Target: SusD/RagB-like outer membrane lipoprotein
Amino acid sequence: MKKLVIALVSLIAFAACTDNFVETNQNPYQISDDLLKQDFNLVGSPFSNMIFNLNGHQIEEDLCSDNWMGYMGTPTDFVGNVNNTTYYIRWNTYWDRVYGSVMSPAKQVIKLAADNNLPLFATWAKLIRIYAVSKLTGVHGPVIYSQYGTTANSIAYDKESDLYPLFFKQLDSIQTDLGANKEYTGFKKFDPSQYGGSIPRWQKLVNSLRLRLAMRISKVDPAMAKTEGEKALADPAGLIVANSDNFINSLNGNKIPVAQICYEWDDTRMGAVMESFLVGLKDGRISKYFAPMSNAALYADHPSVPYKGVRNGAYIKAKADHVPFSKVSEDFQTVQTRRNFTAAEVAFLKAEAGLRGWAGAGDPKTNYEEGIKLSFADWGAGGVDAYLADATSKPISYVDPIDARNNFTAASTITVAWNNADSNELKLEKIITQKYLNTFTNTQEAWVDFRRTGYPKIPHVAKNDSNNDWGVIPATEWIKRMPFVNAERNGNTAAVADAVSKMGTGAKDDIATRLWWDTGKANF
Model:
């Protein structure tokens, strides 16, 4: 089995200078703190790596949310075809990425910013920290946040119902600091995103992140969600509403992971769920996401549309069987950036907020259609007007020409065209389905939406290997969370036990326990 070996960019060492430092003894390959202080390098240099590590690679994403949500499927029979994709946990490393490559350097930046009277760099680090941990808590539930950095033998986890109010409070402070320094240009040299150090553009991300997190808790704490969502919608700094303000970060010279996994390792292919939706709905984004195939026998069920995907949790007998299926588009071979937050996502958030009666959200239909238009434009796809008007095309059932055990009947019967006469439930399904289709290459948030709302409607895994080792997922259910990592289970045992107790009566540190906001209750 090819295992991902990813070299994380090393953080600059912060070595303290001494009074009797002798210049002639300085290592010519080591940059001293005094030199780094020039142009704020000391506090600015870590941001490129911190932002790079907001996302994962093969183990954290492609063999987790990419597969669970049907964006991608693996043709490879990893560990005898019993692995994360079939609900038996083999890899669990996003925790280490966030703490080792975001939280740790952010803590250093915050201290150094205080020591060097550069408070806005501390503000920036705090925002990146919230962004990372808000993703991490969506994977595990309780996480170490407010107590991070303490030297106690056992470090307590934050309960989810305490974590989100803390996020919101800290976003208040961050937005205040940024709003008071809109003309500040100190970030420019160090900003790896397309924002180029612009404070007003970062402010839009703050509001958009607040809206995302408010919507995440909309079922478990609707009052707080409404308050925070309306605050985001009303803030004069605005939201990400144009593709030019999308939060897109550099990959520091690396190829986008999905292309490397697909073309260099042959370990991922188009997902069957994406085939079901994109082919069935006649979606023009399909050619921007995936590469067409030459073997017509493999897509005989829809011969005019040359794409074929691999089922989520598929039965895989031999790697060679499914390798001929659709790769990601060749265009991704040269992509060295990552979409983290788009205007289309914000439009879909506003559409749902409108259904929920949040002030300032606007008309759900207008926002839904705007989200689709923004997505098509962002991905360079054509035919959006005809797509929006299509009230007949529906997702198709899936046929695996290699192994019929992977076949499924489409669970969703939605069309694209908006109908004001539809129920809120059907409207929500359309909104979340289109949000899902837009979120290709940034799939963790789609997994959050699926657990929160039940949409989009996707098939269960074909092969379910869940058992008492990591938790049992019934045949009619889907994975709910990732367990805490073994290093925490073994080295912070009491805190892990306490964290599990914070997830509610009967909770276990397994893949079947719901997170706080995943209520399993009706959407309206």
Q: What stands out?
A: The chain has one domain: 36-503. The longest helix spans residues 94-115. The radius of gyration is 23 Å.
